[in-house]
Amino acid sequence: MGRMGREEFVQARKLPLTIVLDNIRSLHNVGSVFRTSDAFRVERILLCGITATPPSAEIHKTALGAEDVVEWHYYADTMQAVEALRNEGYAIYAIEQVQESIPLQGFETDDSLHYALILGNEVKGVQQQVVDACDGSIEIPQFGTKHSLNVSVTGGIVIWEFARKMGWVG
Questions:
Q1: Using the 8-state DSSP alphabet, how is residue 160 labeled?
Q2: For the segment 82-126, what is each residue's pLDDT rounded down to a tens digit?
Q3: Phi, psi angle pair for 71, to nearest 5°
């Protein structure tokens, strides 16, 4: 199937996208984000606050080893991660439903930038102080009775859309 080996993956060019997990409770959600990040060669994941870190049997259950190849770092506080990303020159966006959020389909990427997308807690979303520190917020339009998606589903949608907009997929 043409799959990369571990060393080949580590050396391969990465999608200029960092995913930040802001206080994610479910280890299965964390594992799922690792697995999707592997699929699209996301450059790294920042695990923040109460978000669990590898090694973990529960993360591995959904990550299926992606936690061993996708680069990750832990920050005790999400604002520390935002500050580090800001110092590295990232464009930082919360994936959140807030006033003046940009619909995902209307967001335009810039090939000269590296992006960081912050995914929030399953109940509370992205912390308000984190939202306020971002360059903006991106929202996935929804048309049903619910006004939220599972965080790992959200991650899959936004990673796919960024990969598509950045020319990684047709």
A1: H
A2: 999 999 999 999 999 999 999 999 999 999 999 999 999 999 999
A3: -65, 140
Domains of the chain, CATH where assigned:
6-165 (3.40.1280.10)
CB hemisphere CA count around 9 (13 angstroms): 20
Rounded to 10 degrees, the C-alpha dihedral 10/12/17/18 comes to 10
Give residue for tokens 């959200």. Answer: 154
Predicted TM-score of the model (pTM): 0.96
Query: Which range, of 1-5, 50-54, 68-72, 157-161, averages the lowest pLDDT?
Result: 1-5
Distance CA 26, CA 59 (A): 9
Spatial CB neighbours of 6, under 8 Å, sequence gap ≥ 6: 68, 69
